[in-house]
Amino acid sequence: MKNISNNISEVFMPFKALLLYAKQVDKENTQQEKEVYVESYDIGRNGSPVNAHPLSLKESIVLAEVLQSGQEMQNGFLKCRGVLPNNLLYVNSDKTGYAVWHTPPMERGLFFVKGLGIPSGKMNIPAMVWKAGRDNLQVFAIRGSRKPQIKTTLYHAPYFNIYPGGAVCMGNVHIKIDRNTYLEDFIAQWERYFFESYFSHTLNGGSQVKGNIVQLWKGQAGTGQKFPEACLVKNGLTIEKVIR
To answer: Which end of the chain has the lower number of beta carbons within 10 A, N or C?
Structure first.
């Protein structure tokens, strides 16, 4: 058997135990409220409960904060206001949950820093796949306009400010998505964050296209022409690999 103790970075030790007592109620009186008494125990050095005492106010406050923290960890932004959006591909509802969705080819306003020499404005972009949590975003490109399937091949998103794995550098954009944000708003908010920020630079081999990415977008600016999908570069991923 492999010893994994060295891989464990955090150790949690018991320090308190709670024992709940319920007063016996009259079985014939179903309306009678059940009285509950909570007794607190400290945990001794040998792991045995010691110093039994009624739950104190201070201990009650700590317990309430723990329970409140657990409630806040729920991903409210993964809940839909209505029916599931048609462009939704996958939702992971764990405490570090995320959503995966797609957008078809479209015309969208893009912003570039002056140093790139690319005029900002409306341009045609390829279909995209998005994966986002509360504070991180990955984007990918796909060919065609159909809704992607589990085996659909993904391509590097042909934009600046993107790492090779698809993670987006949001720079100084202030990401503010609270846990009560509905899924529909969560998706729309991330798309605004991405498209309303300024594209400025390439990152560690990200932003891959066939040819020169600056010339690519210069050629798109103000032309209204369809995005040239032939310039997209495969990244070795599929939808299946992204959602797992």
So the answer is: N
Instruction: Kindly compute the dihedral angle of the four CA atoms of residues 164, 98, 192, 162, in this order, to the nearest 10 degrees.
Output: -10
Q: How many C-alpha atoms does 149 have within 13 Å on its Cβ side?
A: 2
Q: Which helix (H) or strand (E) holds 51?
A: strand 49-54
- Stated pTM of the model: 0.71
Taking alpha carbons only, the member of 105, 81, 96 closest to residue 155 is 105
Q: Which residues pair with 107 in a beta bridge?
A: 124
Contacts of residue 5, Cβ cutoff 8 Å, sequence gap at least 6: none
- 207, 222 contact by CB (below 8 A): no
Handedness of CA 97, 178, 87, 161 (dihedral sign): negative
Which helix (H) or strand (E) covers residue 236, if one does?
strand 234-238
Give φ, ψ of 203 to 5 degrees: -135, 110
Q: What is the pLDDT of residues 156-202, one digit of tens each?
A: 999 999 999 999 998 888 888 877 788 999 999 999 999 999 999 99
Residue 145 is encoded by which pair of tokens?
Answer: 């306009």
CA-closest candidate to residue 139, choices 124, 111, 158: 158
Q: In angstroms, rounded to a whole number, what is the distance separating the alpha carbons of residues 89 and 92?
A: 11
Asked if 133 and 210 touch (Cβ cutoff 8 Å), the reply is no
- Output helix, strand, coil percentages for the chain, rounded to the nearest 5: 20, 30, 50
